[in-house]
From TrEMBL:
Signal peptide: none
Tree of life domain: Archaea
UniProt cross-references to Gene3D superfamilies, sorted A to Z: TTHA0068-like (1.10.3450.10)
Organism: Halogranum rubrum
Protein's UniProt name: DUF309 domain-containing protein
């Protein structure tokens, strides 16, 4: 499948908004534990008590509450729901495009009946009114999600995925989009993710081997 949404030239490091969208998409795709990893590095660097810090802290605890509720840890879920509510209480809605009121409503419901999350689908998160999934992301945000997925699961080598992301960025402006496609599909296609990763790993290995062969000519 040909990809036309290529990465931007200015994305040397992902922004907080890229991380936010990646985490929301992972959450909506059911990756509740992985979602907070997309936010955590940014959260740790923020000034304690700032709106952004409270916002990300609240979302991190919201996803953790959902994660524990899905596993029947009712006390853990309700405790996290209560603290997440405290972090989000003073924020306007929407905040960075997220419907914070909807999150607060979900947290109140979770605190009163944590078993509801086990009985049905968890509430969705929205950005600018859209329920984002990894299929909706542009390359820069999908790359954040792909790196988080690689970190989440031991069966994936983070170095391989990072290399694939780097090679994808080199494709910017060219006719080839092979690595862009691999990275975006790895982030979005949970059903075929293992196969996609295997193909990505094979291409990365071959490319790195070619680079090593050329380097050896001048040793």
């Amino acid at each position: 499948m040909e990809r036309t949404d290529v990465p931007s030239e200015t994305n040397e490091h992902e922004s907080i908004d890229d991380a936010l969208r990646a985490g929301v998409a992972l959450y909506n795709d059911g990756e509740h534990h992985a979602a907070h990893d997309a936010w955590e590095d940014h959260w740790l660097e923020l000034e304690k008590g700032s709106d952004d810090e409270q916002f990300l802290h609240g979302l991190i605890q919201f996803t953790a509450a959902i994660y524990h509720a899905r596993r029947g840890n009712w006390s853990g879920a309700t405790g996290l729901a209560e603290s997440a509510t405290e972090y989000l209480t003073a924020l306007p809605t929407p905040y960075r495009g997220v419907d914070v009121d909807a999150v607060r409503t979900s947290l109140r419901s979770l605190r009163s009946d944590p078993e509801r999350i086990e009985r049905g689908r968890p509430p969705a998160l929205t950005v600018d009114g859209d329920v984002l999934t990894a299929r909706d992301l542009d390359f820069d945000v999908a790359a954040v999600a792909a790196a988080v997925i690689a970190e989440e699961y031991d069966r994936y080598d983070e170095a391989v995925v990072d290399a694939g992301i780097g090679f994808a960025r080199e494709e910017l402006g060219g006719a080839q989009t092979r690595y862009i496609t691999f990275v975006m599909d790895f982030a979005a296609d949970a059903v075929h993710r293992d196969i996609i990763y295997q193909r990505l790993a094979e291409h990365v290995e071959r490319r790195e081997q070619r680079a090593n062969d050329v380097t050896g000519l001048f040793d």
